[in-house]
Amino acid sequence: MASKPRLHYFKGRGRMESIRWLLAAAGVEYEEQFIASKEDLEKLKKDGSLLFQQVPMVEIDGMKMVQSRAILNYIAAKYNLCGKDLKENALMDMYIESMMDMREMIKHYALKPADAKEKELALIIKTATTRYFPVFEKALKDHGQDYLVGNRFSRADVQLLEVILMVEELEADVLSEFPLLKTYKGRISNIPTIKKFLQPGSARKPRATEKEIAEAIKIFH
Known about the structure:
Layout: E1 6-9, H1 17-25, E2 31-34, H2 38-46, E3 57-60, E4 63-66, H3 68-78, H4 86-111, H5 114-143, H6 155-170, H7 179-189, H8 192-197, H9 210-220
Parallel strand pairs: 1-2
Antiparallel strand pairs: 1-3, 3-4
Helix pairs in contact: 1-3, 1-6, 4-5, 4-6, 5-7
């Protein structure tokens, strides 16, 4: 029997969380080897496990994969979470890049000093509700289907739900003006593998505390 994928990262969301989401959505069990200190990271670097001296790193199918987009692309292709043709995949890529842009904004918000957080939060909510969420609301309205692309469950659905929930952590009623996205969120959340991942005690990581952010900075900087 093939071994489970093994994920190497610190015990937090960061760039590994979308990978956790995608594996969970595919129903794949995996193991996590947490990097708890700078020494743990140096050990991985010295033994040649990190192609570019950085994490996340995922051991899968005999490979030690790095670069989060490459890892996500591989998992999506392996578990049939891509589009059915080049055009669907191109559309997915455009959507997913926008989701990653939002994730980056939220990541930077967590690192901002206290006196800058209010302004940064307002920018995140404005960007989500005027630039990104209207596009997804319109897509769902125009094609009238259950899923974002190609009327089939895909990585785009997984990553959009992840981002919606992250933004809702900052402003709970952010979908109040997006009824189709709100219904979509409920529908995707009830897909069995996703529902399981959203339960307490799953491998999904909580929003980081200031202490956890400080510990991660010590490891990686």
